[in-house]
Design a protein that fits this description.
Length: 672
């Protein structure tokens, strides 16, 4: 029970830190001024860390001191989490693009500089000196690398928790209680992401340099695309939780007394499956004297035959392909969902994370629970589980299709989405930033300091809006005599305020529709999770269970967890209309996306991958139907015979390595 409580807390800690990373994707992108594709690489580094040691942990970990290995994993995971937050304390204060007069009210400058002579020489020199100093600092460091390395360490530390923790429970728990204990652990793991996104919501409200700067001097609000919240604070909290979660495992024993009901059970622990059958005294003596090299030699002899058995199983291979493609779809969608909501519907990072944590994650949890409940209540066998998994995916992606109609139109941004005359823009956007109304101004096309004109149009900067005067400072700055704002008759008296204009009136309504459909879609897709997992367990030999799950997890991480965030990020970058500029030149983070293009790229890529995975799921169903008779399916529901069986029961036991009978593992996966 102590191990169960400790493992549940560890599951909570790793789920919290993982989901918090997802919630800070846009914050990291803005803080380090990097594109979405590079953020995708950072996100995928967690899976790379898993990849480095997952085979070793899955294959050899059961023979070592499992609780202490889990404890060491927690320490490594916490060290990685702390490392992610470290750049905040070494890279200086966050700088955002702002016109000088909005920062320091003592210097009065006209936004529309007719020429350099209009700017006081001392102000220009000071500004240039600051830029040069910043360039020297930036040129010597790429601090996002520490975030990548920290996430890599998180992946390494998290690896032993699931395979060793679940196997430990399965080995020493009473057989009737094992499924309940595993269910408790998984339930707590689902609670973790809820708190992770809520923590992300809280930290996104706080300014990135809170405690280090005067907050009254900050001229941007959380609605600004340049706003960066206190992303680092959540990592410090998550790191402390990971340290606390690992402490109990250092005091737990290597072995526990085996329950009486398990000593002679046919469902003996996996711990004894791979070793030579000897009497208990001999085995105990062997474990005390065995060395890692000797164990590795024996394991290596079984590795290739085991691998051949798995890859010779058509159901396992087809389901693996379906899962890889579907996880590509889901991982890409989940990773960039906060960015999509922010850019498509004009929501703040804080509100986006709050909505995901409080609405979407519980829907996923309820869907997983519903899938298991349906399996139990209706006695669904393997063939039925395959159908339920397929139906869940089909209807989930069908609902996703409706989200194409629930988007917002592009905001009216002069020179980017509309011309300065109000017509839709079709020409190259950088050239269109300049017009007759601002031709007399000395402006940079690289700046992003948006203002909202009284005509409801957003202008990239006060200079490009042709504003001749300003009043006030910071968030309260007001610009007057903007030659590009409004009609030519009123241009001399037109004004604008700091910050971009709000999205259209229909956007809040569309956001509400999006939330409703998104929740239903999340639930529907999640219903197929448990049936799919049962299908995976039932169609492999019981003594290959851990190895098969290790290969499955490895394939998902390598072929989905690592590449999906990267190519989703690359695709999203293609929809950018206005890139930010780094202080030393070069492209920074995207400031404005084409809403329509973003919607079609993000949802389209998710949907295409989902449809391809459905084809593989249909193939799984076809193979099962071909190899199973209706009688087999009925018997399978009662735990007497596996639906993955071939027509010859004898072939299953003696000759076939592809499919199994549940005699090896009576009723266990059904309860799980």
């Amino acid at each position: 029970q102590i191990f169960l409580g400790a493992l549940s807390f560890v599951y909570f800690a790793k789920a919290l830190s993982g989901s918090y990373l997802k919630s800070t994707i846009t914050q990291i992108e803005r803080r380090f001024d990097i594109p979405s594709s590079l953020v995708g690489v950072i996100d995928g580094s967690f899976e790379i860390g898993n990849l480095l040691i997952i085979i070793l942990v899955s294959y050899f970990g059961a023979k070592l001191h499992r609780p202490r290995i889990i404890g060491a994993g927690c320490l490594i995971m916490s060290a990685g989490t702390f490392l992610i937050a470290m750049p905040q304390f070494f890279m200086g204060r966050y700088r955002y693009e702002r016109f000088p007069s909005t920062i320091n009210s003592t210097v009065s400058l006209s936004p529309c500089l007719q020429d350099k002579s209009q700017t006081p020489l001392s102000a220009l020199e000071k500004s240039q000196a600051k830029i040069n100093a910043g360039c020297e600092k930036e040129a010597g460091s790429s601090m996002w690398i520490y975030v990548l390395l920290g996430n890599l360490l998180r992946g390494i530390g998290e690896t032993p928790i699931q395979p060793l923790g679940i196997a430990y429970i399965d080995d020493y728990a009473v057989e009737e209680n094992a499924a309940l204990y595993i269910g408790c652990v998984q339930t707590v793991a689902i609670i973790g992401p809820i708190f992770g996104f809520l923590l992300g919501s809280l930290c996104a409200k706080l300014y990135v340099d809170i405690g280090f700067v005067d907050l009254d001097s900050i001229t941007i609000s959380p609605k600004d695309v340049q706003w960066v919240g206190a992303w680092w604070l959540g990592y410090l909290i998550a790191g402390v939780i990971s340290v606390l979660a690992g402490i109990p495992f250092w005091f737990l024993p290597k072995h526990l007394p085996k329950p009486e009901s398990r000593k002679d059970s046919s469902t003996s622990s996996e711990h004894s499956k791979f070793i030579i059958e000897e009497n208990k005294d001999q085995r105990a003596s062997y474990w005390q004297q065995a060395k890692l090299a000797e164990m590795a030699k024996g394991k290596a002899l079984n590795f290739l035959p085991s691998l051949k058995n798995l890859f010779g199983n058509p159901v396992y291979i087809l389901y693996l392909c379906a899962s890889i493609i579907q996880f590509n779809s889901l991982i890409g969608m989940v990773t960039y969902k906060p960015k999509y909501i922010e850019q498509q519907y004009g929501q703040t990072s804080s509100k986006t994370n709050f909505v995901i944590g409080l609405i979407n994650i519980p829907a996923v949890a309820f869907g997983i629970f519903s899938g298991g409940l349906i399996m139990k209540k209706f006695g669904v066998g393997v063939y039925g589980a395959a159908k339920l998994s397929l139906g869940s995916s089909f209807f989930g992606y069908l609902l996703l299709l409706s989200l194409f109609a629930m988007g917002c139109e592009n905001s009216d941004v002069a020179g980017l989405t509309v011309s300065y005359h109000g017509t839709k823009l079709m020409t190259d956007y950088e050239q269109a930033l300049f017009s007759e109304c601002n031709s007399g101004c000395w402006c940079s096309k690289h700046d992003w300091d948006p203002i909202c004109g009284e005509d409801g149009v957003t202008y990239v900067s006060a200079c490009l809006a042709g504003c001749q005067a300003s009043n006030g400072s910071g968030k309260n700055a007001v610009f007057f005599n903007c030659s590009c704002v409004g009609t030519s008759e009123s241009s001399q008296s037109s004004s604008a305020v700091m910050g971009p204009c709000q999205k259209g009136n229909e956007c809040p309504k569309m956001f509400l529709y999006f939330l409703v459909v998104s929740v239903i879609t999340s639930y529907t897709l999640s219903v197929g999770g448990t049936p799919g997992y049962i299908l995976l367990l039932r169609c492999i030999k019981p003594h290959l269970k851990s190895f098969a799950l290790g290969i499955y997890t490895l394939a998902i991480r390598v072929l989905a967890g690592i590449p999906a965030p990267v190519y989703f990020g690359v695709a999203i970058d293609t929809t950018c209309l206005k890139w930010g500029s780094k202080r030393c030149g070069g492209r920074g983070a995207c400031r404005l996306y084409d809403s329509s293009a973003l919607r079609y790229v993000y949802l389209g890529l998710t949907l295409v991958l989902g449809m391809v995975s459905i084809f593989f799921s249909v193939a799984v169903l076809w193979v099962l139907r071909k190899r199973s008779s209706p009688q087999d399916e009925t018997l399978s529901a009662n735990g007497e015979r596996g639906a993955c069986g071939t027509k010859s029961r004898k072939d299953n036991f003696v000759h076939s390595d592809q499919l199994i009978q549940s005699t090896y593992w009576p009723k266990k996966e059904t309860r799980l």
